[in-house]
Amino acid sequence: MIFSSLLFLFSFLPFVLIGNYLWRNIKWQNTFLFIASLYFYAWGEREKVFVMLGSILVNFLVGKWIEKKEGRGRTVALTVGVVVNLGVLVYFKYSRFFIENINQLLDVFNIPIIEGLKYERLPLGISFYTFQSMSYLVDVYRKEVKAQRNFLNLGLYVALFPQLVAGPIVRYNEIAAQLIKRTQSLSKFNEGIKRVIIGLGKKMLLANPMAYVADEIYMLPVDDITTPMAWMAAIAYSLQIYFDFSGYSDMAIGLGKMFGFDLAENFNFPYIAKSIREFWTRWHISLSIWFRDYLYIPLGGSRGSTLFTMRNLLIVFFITGLWHGASWSFIGWGLFHGFFILIERVGFDKILKRIPFIFQHIYLLLVVIFGWVFFRIENWGDAIFLQKTMLGLNRIDSLSNLKIIMNNYYWMVFILAIIFCFPLLKYKNVHEKIKRVKLIEVLGLLLIFLLSIVEMASNTYSPFIYFRF
Known about the structure:
71% of the residues lie in helices and 0% in strands. By secondary structure, it is mostly helical.
């Protein structure tokens, strides 16, 4: 079940909202939401819901184990919890990748190939709920939070359906108090509806049309893609992934508010950044903070020599790429960003600050757009070939080839998508003026909602990009 479906919006969500507000006692609300979240997950995952339930149970027990111990025993308990969590993630997400690469290596030395292993389908959202679970254990270990004594409360933290499948990654200490007491008001509910509609509009009206453009071009043999087409596909995919993922995050945050939860923001107009370093403070913020607090700082952060810091950054971005998918193309994408983070840290950032900000933006966009080619194209050789095409080293040709794909509708969406990458409502008090004329805001949201419903009714199944991670 996905947020951008008629089934979710007109069946599941109304039922859960009514059920939630029928219960005034927070404990019964939590129980109801936990059951509803399990149903939401099991709708598409079926037996894989037991993987998540098993994860919740293990982390519930390990959390209490950590709290009881001190010194070495505490470290052993945390280590067991982290190993179990990573073991489950590696088994489901990376076993095929590791075996295939081991087989390639063995083949070079004419050693018998590893065969006969059964590969499991990747459970939806496992990367997200595994990271949340590990952050809970680490926070208990650091004595920043108390171990949860109520299994249903920990279960709701992990399985809460708005953020279950594709984040944002919620830290336990951010939501622990809300599991016991949370504010549920009409104003918060209305704000939640607004965020849901905006997120739905991003997905259906901007991301999906851009997905069509990118897919139509990338489905062609790479030899047939000209320079203008390669640029259009890369930019269209850049817009698609931003509006798709930020749209999901908006809907998750909005749904959370409708049930009284305050979830952290996950995007802050990343394409207006002026450096890769700034980009990662604006893109998938919850993941960046997770890696900072639970990997980069424990590795030593920037507290050592320049080489020591560079090593830590490369490790973080290697893992960042690997987290997104079991493929060398994802690893390449992560290290590609890591390389530019490194050169900015060793002095290039000072050069950037001396040049006009427009050129800083151009630098950021070129790096990010080229990087998305690695992210989108799983075959490493094809990705490099397309990047060469973008640089004019292969088929250049004219813009005429784009006319086959780009009609007036797609050009209009393309331009609107670029415009909405900027925080328009922050300029010249536009936001305040719209608020004063409440009717305009309501009509605008209603129009977005109706157009999104029309798109849902006419289009085929289109899950959010980050469902695959």
